[in-house]
């Protein structure tokens, strides 16, 4: 039952974020330079994000999220098979412990954050329960940032992400699409044909996932 309530809460949050329509300009070159030239400042912003600091601006959050792609820890191809298995089996206590450890190395993963949040709401671990507000805020910050990074409905203004798993989470847990009808590549973008629960029309949503693609070109899958 608690999992159902959480799903509803995530959906309502998504409606508020998506309807807002505000956008920010994501300057990846500037962020790359800032992370390289001021690593201590980046670490400070990242630490504020980890503890669930609600005062982070979207510009600061852009540095936190996209800046992670320019850090030594960035490995967007990690699969976390053990977490996926425990989560799929409904072993939320085990999922929490595995997510807690994985988030130390990949704190900006929307996928891990959602799994940790669901696990924390459905297990008996007191430490997990205490982390729910911070995890909820982290979820809100990442999802809001991605939705503010572009229109999403225009190839000239795609949503910008740092890994393919975040695309899946944005579609299924934030925008809450009813179904994904197809996916293709357009102008170096990932285009998804989706059906939304609010109407019967099909929509195309565009994502820029070139940070992960560049990583794969350099390091392989």
Can you describe this structure?
The relative contact order is 0.14. It is globular, with a radius of gyration of 17 Å. It has one domain (2-219). It has helices spanning 2-20, 28-37, 39-50, 58-67, 81-88, 92-105, 110-121, 126-148, 164-174, 210-219; strands at 159-160, 179-186, 189-195, 202-208. The longest helix has 23 residues, at 126-148. Helix 3 crosses helix 4 and helix 7 packs antiparallel against helix 8 (126-148). 58% of the residues lie in helices and 11% in strands. With 221 residues, the protein is of the alpha+beta class.
pLDDT < 50 runs, ≥5 residues: 1-20
Largest sheet: 4 strands, mixed
From the alpha carbons, calculate the radius of gyration and give it in angstroms: 17 Å
Give the termini distance in whole angstroms: 38 Å
Overall mean pLDDT stands at 88
> Could you spell the SSE succession in H and E letters?
HHHHHHHHEHEEEH
Shape: globular
**Helix content bin:** 55-70%
Cross-sheet strand order for the largest sheet:
1-4-3-2
| Percent of residues in beta strands | 5-15%
**Structural category:** alpha+beta
Question: How many separate domains?
Answer: 1
**Strand elements, count:** 4
- By DSSP (H or I, 4+ residues per run), the number of helices equals 10
Topology, element by element:
Layout: H1 2-20, H2 28-37, H3 39-50, H4 58-67, H5 81-88, H6 92-105, H7 110-121, H8 126-148, E1 159-160, H9 164-174, E2 179-186, E3 189-195, E4 202-208, H10 210-219
Parallel strand pairs: 1-4
Antiparallel strand pairs: 2-3, 3-4
Helix pairs in contact: 1-8, 2-3, 2-4, 3-4, 4-8, 5-6, 6-7, 7-8
